[in-house]
User: Fold these one by one.
Assistant:
Number 1:
Amino acid sequence: MTIARITAVTVITFAGFFGAGLADGIAAADPAPGRLGPYEALATCEREGNIGMETGEWADYECTGAAGAWYIAPRN
């Protein structure tokens, strides 16, 4: 493959992942009154879990559950 093709494939791949993240964020902007869930998508649960780590709410976390009902399980 040429460098131009590799670059094009990389850009398209990242654009796809970025677009999927935006669609997920729009659909689940306010997922639930509770901070720990439930969240529709795993990506939303992980994003909220990372925000909780950044703000010092918990030291680590795990998203548990299944599609449509993901919960943040904090670990301190």
Note: The first helix runs from residue 3 to 27.
Number 2:
Amino acid sequence: MNITFSEGRVIANQHELVVRLDGQARATMQAMVDDITLMGRGANVITAMGSGVSWSVRLDSDAQLQAVSDAIGIAIQE
């Protein structure tokens, strides 16, 4: 699954999630699905914490967060 948002792209499958940010730095953040938390209620945030990983990114809409949830099989926390 590949979702484009205002700051870059989210590439996700049942095993891992990769966020590629646009701009000069072209940063890439990767995490295993077990380390991912999805926060809804308008926040639309993907958080990765565990195994030396700690980052978060805000998506543009609830629909984008729902698409990530569907792709990786993790429920959105309200």
Note: The first helix runs from residue 62 to 72.
Number 3:
Amino acid sequence: MPALPLSLNAICGLACEPTLLPRVRMAIAMIAQEVFAEPPETPGYPARWNLSKTVLSPTESQAAQLMVGIVASPPMLAAAAAAAAAGGTTDSVAMAAAITDDQILGAIRTGWNAVAGVSPTSAETTRIEEVET
């Protein structure tokens, strides 16, 4: 397992950062809208759609629950590490401010299947079957 790009304390601080929470809430709603527009043939679509329906207008507590997984995702860890390196600090407010909206959206897109309960194996199998037919 590769070493973490930041300490667990820094990652936890970012996951609990109140200035990041409203941006994450909005990003979740934006990705939910994207999933609603997907064709039903999309691998894992029923679970992806159901998650979208559940979090279309995420409450603060839903977003806070998802925040840990979002911040722990490889795209967000990379963004946080880059923000920490650029700013020379692991202060959660500074890191949150340096993470771009695109990085937040990308992390949520990347983790949507896992949160929805779509198995990576079943999604890949579906994609392979679609290519073969």
Note: Residues 17 and 92 are 6 Å apart (CA to CA).
Number 4:
Amino acid sequence: MSAILKRNGVTPRWRRLTEANVDEAEQLYVHQGMSAARIANRLRVDPETVRLRLRKRGVQMRDPHDRN
């Protein structure tokens, strides 16, 4: 099914984060203070995906009400 969608130019609603994507997300979150939601938008994934991958790496998550 995904091959048919790709052939027809349909972008999937989800995609997996590569380790390079997680590296970028960590850099943006920890060092630049960007919110998980903004990072998710930039990487075209669900914000929860970003949160889960960062937590798995041991990143201390900020209060979600302290957004940038």
Note: The chain has a mean pLDDT of 88.
